[in-house]
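Deviations from the work plan: none for this task. Representative record:
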Amino acid sequence: VSSEKSPALLISANTERFPEPVFPIGAAYLADALEKRGHPVRIFDAGLFRNPQKELEKLIEALRPAAVGISLRNIDNAAWPHVRSYLDWYRTIASTIRRSTQVPLIIGGSAFSIFPVELVDMLSPDCGVTGDGEAAVDCFFNSNYPIDPSDMTGNPSNRKIINGRLENLDSVAFPRNIGAIFPEFGRYRTIGIQTARGCPRHCIYCTYPILEGSRLRLRPPEAVAEELEMLCARFGKQEFFIVDSLFNADEQHMERVLRAIIARRIKIRFSCYLMPRMADLSLFGLLREAGCIAVDFGTDSGSPSILHALRKNFSVQDVRNVSAACAKAGIDYCHSLLFGGPGESVDTIHETVALMDELNPAAIIAMTGIRIYPGTPLAKLAAADGLIEPGTSMLHPVFYGTEETRQDLRGMVATISASRKNWFMPGGKDWSSSLWPRLLRLLHRSGPLWRALSPHR
Ligand code: B12
Ligand code: SF4
């Protein structure tokens, strides 16, 4: 098959609409890497169609792709107790592709990186890539792609798995011809942008070091600013989400990116995730100057003992300092909380509530029940505590603690939340068919949804 004529088809399988549809940035970066290797690409985003299966069949028929890649972002919504798993849909997509074409099928994405063996077993691709997809694009067009022999042990599914890891991120780029390769690009108002990968911390429940590695790898700040300028000038995009696990994981890098944006005088608005600790609090002013309108702090708890148990590297005083600095800079902020970790009690919940009442942020996103992922310290702890059987698959979501403890916690957090206007519980109801988030988005077009929900507005 001539790859000149037949493109690789990259499918973003994500159809989740809560809190809102997210731009398929993984597929976009991968598309750029494929194009740089001389392979034309077409991106199909299942989340944008009423009947994605039918649209996909039509597209494969019309396009006759030379290879098909599926990007698997979420396994489930991780929101106990209204958990929604997307696995049935992924099976449907994979079988639709297999019925429609004989070309190689490659899978990747964060869901795949967390559960590679299980998803190879379930979806039977020709190959699966964990980590950085850009590092393994050759597997799309080379069936003899050398698979790391260290993986040739145990389950035969391992033999189809490639571990993609870029040494540095200099080659990572947003495709400049995105409008041509992704005709629906115009339908996204907020575009994701990445400035770094990796997290050197080891918070007990977190998958990020598994997904992106423990070494922080930074994109050149100039490349990030240039990309934003290009998206602004060429496509009229003005709203962005910096998808880094923590934009301030390296404060100096964040500062360089912000200064590069400011120097280009680009008129953009963006939001990001920050760790609630900043050595240089004046950076909040710089964030605002560069266009930051909303920050989501991964705070988890207001109890020192829980922060310690979760292995967070900040203190309650740090949380106070960043909240004050954020407010002073005129940036809306929310604190994301995780109730139900090891050691959580009525007292620790009260400590957290007292801190949140004191800070009174624009929004508080409260999750009860921490999802356990394989390879994390929490998985080891849960096994040692007898909460999960050794060898239990966590593909179907498993949450820390007994069902009874979680129900009690949820009751408590629901009562707290009901009497406070800025508290939201994503697991509090099944949002899948709710029109409410969409209506809210129509009324408030800028920034993350929690900002639109905030009573402060
Ligand atoms: C930023 C982010 C958000 C933002 C997104 C904002 C935006 N506008 O983009 C917000 C806050 C909205 C969000 C929401 C949610 N998120 Co989120 N999010 C992330 C985060 C931190 C980064 C995602 C990202 O953009 N990465 C950058 C891109 C470039 O990476 P990537 O997509 O993984 O792609 C790379 C590789 O995976 C690979 N690749 C990707 N596709 C393919 C395809 C092929 C064929 C190949 C070979 C390779 C490949 O190559 C790419 C380039 O290297 C990840 C954690 C993480 N570090 O990955 C969680 C993460 C994806 N989110 C997760 C979850 C659960 C959610 C929510 C369901 C939470 C909730 N209950 O509300 C929602 C779902 C929203 C939706 N509609 O889908 C989970 C998914 C795991 C799971 N349990 O299923 C993750 C992994 C975090 C975690 N807990 O581990 N999220
Ligand atoms: S929770 Fe945040 S700081 Fe902790 S390991 Fe994950 S990404 Fe890093």
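The longest strand covers residues 292-300.
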